[in-house]
Amino acid sequence: MVSEDEARMQFVLALRARGVTDRAVLQAMEDTPRAVFLEGIFKARAYEDVPLPIGSGQTISQPSIVGLMTQALQVGRRDKVLEVGTGSGYQAAILSPLARRVYTTERHRGLARQAERVLRDLDRTNVTVIATDGAFGLPEQAPFDRIIVTAAAEDPPSSLLAQLKVGGIMVLPVGQSDTVQTLLKVVKTEDGLDYHSLAEVRFVPLVEGMAED
Ligand code: SAH
Q1: Residue 205 to residue 213: CA distance in whole angstroms
Q2: Which pLDDT band holds residue 205 (cuts at 50, 70, 90)?
Q3: Which residues are known catalytic residues?
Q4: Per-residue confidence band for 213, with pLDDT thresholds at 50, 70 and 90
Q5: What are its E.C. numbers (predicted)?
Q6: Of 19, 34, 35, 177, which residue is most buried, by most CB within 10 angstroms?
């Protein structure tokens, strides 16, 4: 058995090897115990660079993808950030020390409640979890400096693009749910939108409407 410290060190080295080099992002990931976002037998696998089940048929993302998405988002200390797809709350917890305020939306009420509890226990008090359909953004808190979507839509949702400030950045996977998707970075400028593809990824689909549970 490797010790907790050693496992954590290897975790950070693996993130670096996969291209997560931003120091603030690596620090946030080192300071955020992924095990508390997992249940039962999956807790023991928290430091593996794989997605894992979190209930309601959803998954916690692969840590290196969380790292690459967070890095691409270039979050500033004064930024107001929207996440669509709270899931376990892990991605929101990583954003918390980097941003001023994080709003995160989840269509499964049970997941939203659980994530809220874990984030509170970790003292990530600048994160607000909202159980709502996030496919149309969060108009009451718009506009946002940064938007991250952790479920795949076929195209970047136009209401999310509309809720992004000029100078803002949105990172999201696009493509059909049963195929390889593209991780996109969208930068909103005075003149329009610039698109950059970052990687091939696989995410659960962005689904409209609240879930039954
Ligand atoms: N960011 C998460 C991983 C999320 S998996 C983490 O760190 O654990 C994607 C999540 O998006 C799922 O929990 C799914 O229920 C949610 N989701 C899908 N469509 C949604 C929508 N329209 N609004 C809000 N959440 C949505």
Answers
A1: 17
A2: very high
A3: 61
A4: confident
A5: 2.1.1.77
A6: 34
Type of residue at 118: V
The mean pLDDT of 145-173, rounded to a whole number, is 98
Select the CATH number that applies to the domain covering 4-201 from these four: 2.30.40.10, 3.40.50.300, 3.40.710.10, 3.40.50.150: 3.40.50.150
Tell how far the Cα of 195 is from the centroid of ligand 1, in angstroms: 23
Q: Find out whether the beta carbon of 111 lies less than 6 Å from any atom of ligand 1.
A: yes
- pLDDT 10s digits, 1-27: 788 889 999 999 999 999 999 999 999
Residue 8 CB less than 6 A away from ligand 1: no
Single-letter amino acid code for the residue at 144: F
Which atom of ligand 1 is nearest the CA belonging to 37? Answer: 8
Amino acid sitting at position 124? R
Q: How far is the CA of 133 from the centre of ligand 1 (A)?
A: 10
In contact, 151 and 205? CB cutoff 8 Å: yes
> For residue 119, how far is its CA from the centre of ligand 1 (angstroms)?
16
Which of ligand 1's atoms lies nearest the C-alpha of 115? 8
Q: Count of CB atoms within 10 A of residue 16's CB? A: 12
Q: Write out pLDDT tens, residues 80-124.
A: 999 999 999 999 999 999 999 999 999 999 999 999 999 999 999
Kind and range of the H or E run holding 171: strand 164-174
Residue whose entry in the numeric block shows the structure tokens 């409407």? 209
